[in-house]
Automatic annotation (TrEMBL):
Coiled coil: 68-95
Protein name, UniProt field: Protein PET100, mitochondrial
Transmembrane segments: 15-33
Subcellular location: Membrane; Mitochondrion membrane
Protein species of origin: Penicillium roqueforti (strain FM164)
GO biological process, one term: mitochondrial respiratory chain complex IV assembly
Record family assignment: Belongs to the PET100 family.
Keyword Transcription regulation: no
GO-annotated cellular components: mitochondrial inner membrane
Mitochondrion among keywords: yes
GO-annotated molecular function: unfolded protein binding
Record keywords, A-Z: Coiled coil, Membrane, Mitochondrion, Transit peptide, Transmembrane, Transmembrane helix
């Protein structure tokens, strides 16, 4: 061990330090830059092609997609109207119950 320290004096020490300054970042980048798919990947993180959206390209597909979107909007609109009507009916029932209590 002492022979290594005796050899690393003067110019040899500078060459060793320069080599470490250059090789350490390169080794670090090589270690973390290779095989990224296996080292840092989470399985089933990204959706597969079957699970992702399919963009319609021709006119028939676009028309079908627009019809489907309009149907979904109509169903949501009806559900929202039904929920609003139910909430309104509950408010009216509460108001009517309160007026019955005040009359007694």
């Amino acid at each position: 061990m002492s022979q290594i320290f005796r050899k690393l004096q003067g110019g040899n020490l500078e060459v060793f330090k320069f080599g470490m300054y250059v090789l350490f970042p390169i080794g670090w980048m090589y270690y973390f830059g290779t095989n990224l798919d296996d080292r840092f990947a989470t399985k089933n993180f990204w959706p597969t092609a079957d699970q992702s959206h399919k963009i319609p390209l021709d006119k028939d597909e676009i028309d079908q997609e627009l019809a489907r979107m309009r149907m979904v909007d109509a169903v949501k609109r009806e559900q929202r109207r039904a929920a609003e009507a139910q909430a309104q009916a509950q408010l009216e029932a509460q108001a009517q119950a309160q007026t019955m209590q005040t009359q007694q």
